[in-house]
Every structure is written in structure tokens, then in C-alpha cells.
């Protein structure tokens, strides 16, 4: 007398799950080799296990659970690199946008609150350097990226974050003056002749 089909299916699912768990290290090595990072490989494997265990019922009788799971992992790697490529393209576009941003006329730049020079020094060193090279020295984002050994997209993000951090510093220090672009600055530091 044969077992009930659901019982057989449950036994097959349990055996497939055991096979996947037993191959955990091999799966991790497979992913790490393709993505270049142990932490990322672990994340991808965890996601694949979560999705894969829910889909074990899709496994055909003649199909190896391990071979099926490797296909799942290959797809996860392909998806990862596609997402990374899209992110890189967006960062590159942002860097290009920053390159084309209009500079303030010299008279406006000269009238801006001198407090900014002091406040920039209080930023993280990499932010202060980004602002100094791009905003003060006039280096392009692309040139700055090459100097720092980072991609133009990463440089653009660094400049964006540096500008945001400086804006927050100016608002804390100068109050409402900062809301008006620090032109004709009347904050306390300006009155004491900061430079």
C-alpha cells in the first residue's frame, strides 16, 4: 500500500532541504567567488535560502535540489550585478550633473559669509578635502575622483554629502543668516571679523 502523496511530498521536501543545508559552504564559496565579498555572499545566500525553501515544491521529481539551487544562485548573482550597474550609471549621471552645475559669480562668492571657511574645517576630513578641491580650488568632480582613487559617482556622492554637512553646520552657527545664503552676513562670527 503506497503512502499518501502529501506524505511522500513532505519527505521529498525534507530531503531536499537537508541537501541544501549540507551544501551551505559550497554555495557560499560559489557566491563569494562571483561577487568578491564574503559579507555580500552571505547576504545573497540568506536571501536565496529564504526564497528557495518556499519554492521547493516547484522541484521536479527528476531534478536535483542542489543543481536547482545553483541555478537560483546564478540568477541572484546576475540580479546583483544588474542592480550594481544601474546604481553605477545613476552615480555617474549625478557626477556629470554636478560637473555642469553653474558656479556662483565672483562677487557673490566673495560676499558669502567667511564663517564657512572655519566651519568646513570641522567637517570629516574627506568632506573638507572634497569641498576644498572642488568648491575652492575649482577641480572637476572627475579630477577629484582620480586624485582620491574613487569613481566619479562616489566622488559626486561625497561632494553632495559634504555640501549637506556644511549646510547643517552653517545653519547651526549662523541661524537665519544661512537661510538667505549668508550674503551680507550679520551673524556673530561675521561681526567679530571671522576669516
Would you spell out the secondary-structure blueprint of this structure?
Elements: H1 5-22, H2 24-35, H3 38-54, H4 65-99, H5 106-111, H6 115-121, H7 125-136, H8 141-148, H9 152-174, H10 176-179, H11 188-191
What does this structure look like?
The chain is an all-alpha fold and 195 residues long. The chain folds into two domains: 5-98, RNA polymerase sigma factor, region 2, helix turn helix motif (Rna Polymerase Sigma Factor, Chain: A, Orthogonal Bundle); 104-191, Arc Repressor Mutant, subunit A (Orthogonal Bundle), CATH 1.10.10.10. It has helices at residues 5-22, 24-35, 38-54, 65-99, 106-111, 115-121, 125-136, 141-148, 152-174, 176-179, 188-191. The radius of gyration is 28 Å and the shape is elongated. The termini are far apart. Residues 1-8, 107-112 and 189-195 have low confidence and may be disordered.
List keywords for this structure.
195 residues, 2 domains, 11 helices, Rna Polymerase Sigma Factor, Chain: A, mainly alpha, elongated, Arc Repressor Mutant, subunit A, single chain, disordered N terminus
Amino acid at each position: 500500500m503506497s503512502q499518501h502523496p502529501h506524505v511522500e511530498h513532505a519527505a521529498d521536501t525534507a530531503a531536499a532541504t537537508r541537501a541544501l543545508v549540507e551544501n551551505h559552504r559550497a554555495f557560499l564559496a560559489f557566491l563569494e567567488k562571483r561577487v568578491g565579498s564574503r559579507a555580500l555572499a552571505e547576504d545573497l545566500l540568506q536571501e536565496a535560502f529564504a526564497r528557495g525553501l518556499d519554492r521547493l515544491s516547484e522541484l521536479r521529481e527528476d531534478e536535483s535540489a542542489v543543481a536547482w539551487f545553483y541555478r537560483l544562485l546564478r540568477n541572484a548573482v546576475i540580479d546583483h550585478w544588474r542592480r550594481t550597474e544601474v546604481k553605477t550609471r545613476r552615480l555617474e549621471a549625478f557626477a556629470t550633473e554636478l560637473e555642469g552645475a553653474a558656479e556662483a559669480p565672483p562677487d557673490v562668492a566673495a560676499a558669502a559669509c567667511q564663517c564657512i571657511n572655519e566651519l568646513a574645517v570641522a567637517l570629516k576630513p574627506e568632506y573638507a578635502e572634497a569641498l576644498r578641491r572642488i568648491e575652492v580650488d575649482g577641480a572637476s568632480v572627475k579630477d577629484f575622483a582620480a586624485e582620491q582613487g574613487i569613481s566619479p559617482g562616489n566622488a559626486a556622492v561625497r561632494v553632495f554629502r559634504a555640501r549637506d554637512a556644511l549646510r547643517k553646520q552653517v545653519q547651526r552657527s549662523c541661524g537665519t543668516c544661512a537661510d538667505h545664503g549668508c550674503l551680507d552676513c550679520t551673524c556673530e562670527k561675521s561681526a567679530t571679523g571671522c576669516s
